[in-house]
Amino acid sequence: MSFYECVKAYPEGSSSASRLALTAKRLGYEGLIICNVEPSKVFRLKAADRIKGIKVILGAEVTAANSRVLKGSISALRARYPFLMVCGGTEELVRSACEDPNVDMLLCPCYYDARRSMSIATARAAMKNQVAIGFDLSPLVLLRGSSRARWLEAAGRNLQMARKFELSTIITTRARSHLDLKAPRDLLALAEVAGFEPEEAQAALKRPGRLIELNRRKWIGPGVELL
Amino acid sequence: MAFELEAEGEISSGELMKEIRSAQFSLFGDAGASKNRLKLISFNGQCGLLRCSYAHIQDTRAILATIHSINGIRVSLHSKGVSGTIKTATEKYLPQLGKICAESHRRRIELDDVSGCVIRTHGLKVDLCPDNRDKTEGSDTLYLGLTSFDLSGGHEDADGTTDGL
Predict the structure, then answer these.
(1) Domain with A136 in it: what CATH number?
(2) How many Cβ atoms from other residues are within 10 Å of residue A146's Cβ?
């Protein structure tokens, strides 16, 4: 099982990278991607390397006020980190993240506004630039009642759009603490509640590992690799 | 289904079952709950057995995964495995150690980025109560989760033990 999970480590979360790695190893993950907004400030990343049997990879989460700043920070971070995640806060940010082939994962915009789901133009741009759509399942855990129902509806619509344009999907809970980490099987069960097919959910949980593998190779142009 | 509970405090079986029921009703409604009647068979504070319908294993996993806190205490529930009988589930998935007590001591940790009181340690795991409460904001936890690897060699006045404690 080569499942990967995206987390936030201390100081942005409340558990250190090594504690998250220890818990993830026990739950059966192959690797952990730390997606902090400031990856250079992660607390004692070296301690996490001492936990054997799990790969701890430092990625980055890109946040920006507008699309110009976003583009600048993506190109600055791309060379340093093998995994880049963008949180689409506004329509403008979602659009420009989808139009950038350097982005690995765009977090499902339904988290921010349940009424607005991904537009067709955005989905088409994501397909063209091979940007994976991330589904953050933490609202399914944190919300109750009508707000959860609304979130499920928006996530379902986004999933439909992803299927239509054959976008690759990633599921995560964006754990901020070791108590937020779910076992892979539990996460698959949650994804099925959100409307995923079992095989689709498994592929979605394995995808970050594949992306990192591809990003670590030296590409000098689209389809051209330096060996 | 055998499951494991990780919590920041003590949770009784009554509280746990109440929360599981409420999560089930919230996620699947009355009609869904009637098809998958859950019953807590045993629970020792850390591990437990839950009876569920074989046809609704995935639903039961999802129910356990949606539990976030019980009576304001942050918890995390993981399913460990599924078995047909209580006997095999106990033999296969539940540790025969009795209740594992975490060591509790109130030593202080002073590092550049983090300072506070050690609440408990359990193997490599260390739970720390930070002096600055803003540090755990956003994740609803009381304590910071660290490991002894994080604390080793952090301060020149440390005792000099290899695990940093």
Answers:
(1) 3.20.20.140
(2) 8
